Amino acid sequence: MGTVHAKSLDPLPMHGPDLGVHPDDFVDTPEPEQDSKQEVLENKDVIVQHVNIQGLQRTKEDLLGYEISDVFHARNLIDVMKKSHIARQRLLRLGIFKDVEVLIDTSEGSDALPNGLDVTFEVTEIKRLTGSYNTMVGNNEGSMVLGLKLPNTLGRAEKLTFQFSYGTKETSYGLSFFKPQPGHFERNLSLNLYKVTGQFPWSSLKETDKGMSAELNFPLWRTNHTLKWEGVWRELGCLARSASFAVREESGHSLKSSIMHTVSIDSRNSAIFPSRGGLLRLNQELAGYTGGDASFLKEDVELQLNRRLFWDSVLSVSLWGGMLYRIAGKPSCIADRFYLGGPTSVRGFGMYSIGPQSEGDYLGGEAYWAGGVHLYTPLPFRPGRGSFGDLFRTHFFLNGGNLCNLNYGEGPQAHLQKLAECIRWSYGAGIMLRLGNIARLELNYCIPMGVQSGDRICDGVQFGAGIRFL
Asked: At a CB cut-off of 8 Å and minimum separation 6, what does 221 contact?
């Protein structure tokens, strides 16, 4: 029997029960004449006797045993091919191999069984030191990113990274160490040291953070969790001489130590242009109990539901909300409050220009909500269908929300009433462009409504870029 090559297989889809693997993806067209042994392998059970890995230099073999162990459980030829392909993807996911090739052949040697198979993974390791240069899109911000990486630092898929980022509003550099759990790559630990300098023109504020953090990521049933501790020394200052007195009062040094927890359930088929599924994300942050000057409890929730309609159109409903509760009577810091408004949240308003403000500087709020209804459709007449045209969508939206400070001596009913007052909302239409599967661009024509005194509006065309949209 000839050797089967699986090097050029396409990646498996990220969602759905279908593995997307078919026999035609693996097996070359057979010759008309087949020997008896090949017929046995195709029609009867087989046994994987040996799995070999060739090309290892720095990588520890015990790490790879977790990733390829399922291949031994295959019981027929097609199953061997599928499990070998999945094992290949798991090896590539580790980020330590430049290439992985799978070879499947009949067993040889004195212990070979008539229906025995040998599977060989030929790997090419990534260099000890790699560099990268790319651009990154944030919420209405772009940046240039330079990085140095030491992949597979200790031989078990660890990664040591130094990264420098220079952006339109933010400059940062940091050192991070990443360690996954063998056999469970989605369970990992990250340690970080960083310095970030940011400018926030809507508040006439500049901020420099020097900190460290430890982050643990792990799945639990159908949910994904992130548990994080962060200690950061913050220096706040005025961005302009015209900064308001309220912003000047916030200037100075402070130390924040907080514990954060995030839980999410994501069944969407795409993070940027979803056509089905939903997202539920809950964020909690508790500051003050592990030291520092800041003391608060912060809750934030995000909900999104998507449903496919006729003609490839999609109806999407989003809801955001959050509250910051002060602890021990300490006032909240301008850097910890919520902000709302702009092309990535309530469209038709200036960037973060909804809510409390002083002399034209927006100070953020301790409670907010925002909601949106969106109708996404393909481009009219479907130009470039099946290729470049699928990167675009037309967009019809209705957004609304409010942001304010609460008097915590009052009851929940008073809080809800205050959040229901002075609602800002907008509607409009536009066009969107998907950038890979991590970000998107929007060009919308917006009509803002419910405008309050002090709000900055963008009546007409508004451009937005980001990774998280209402």
From this structure: none
Which residue in 247, 468, 298 sits closest to 372, CA to CA?
A: 468
The C-alpha atoms of residue 63 and residue 60 are separated, in whole angstroms, by: 6
Residue 310, both tokens: 């006729």
Burial code (b: 16+ CB inside 10 Å, e: under 16) for 354-382 equals bbbbbeebbbbbbbbbbbbebbbebeeee
Q: How confident is the model at residue 39, as a pLDDT? A: 55
pLDDT beyond 70 at 356? yes
Query: Which of 344, 343, 441, 428 minimizes the C-alpha distance to 391?
Result: 441
Q: How far is CA 339 from the centre of its chain?
A: 21
pLDDT exceeds cutoff 50 at 357: yes
Cα torsion 140, 141, 142, 145: sign: negative
Output the average pLDDT for the chain.
87
Q: Can you give the pLDDT at residue 392?
A: 92
Residue 390 makes CB contacts below 8 A (sequence gap 6+) with: 378, 384
* Lowest-confidence segment of 132-136, 333-337, 400-404, 433-437 by average pLDDT: 132-136
pLDDT given for residue 126 in this prediction: 93
Look at 191-200, 292-301, 322-331, 439-448 and tell me which has the smallest mean pLDDT: 322-331
pLDDT of residue 410: 73
> Residue 396 in contact with residue 447, Cβ under 8 Å?
no
Q: Is 16's pLDDT higher than 90?
A: no
Residue 141 pLDDT class (50, 70, 90 cuts): confident
C-alpha dihedral (75, 79, 80, 82), degrees to nearest 10:
-160
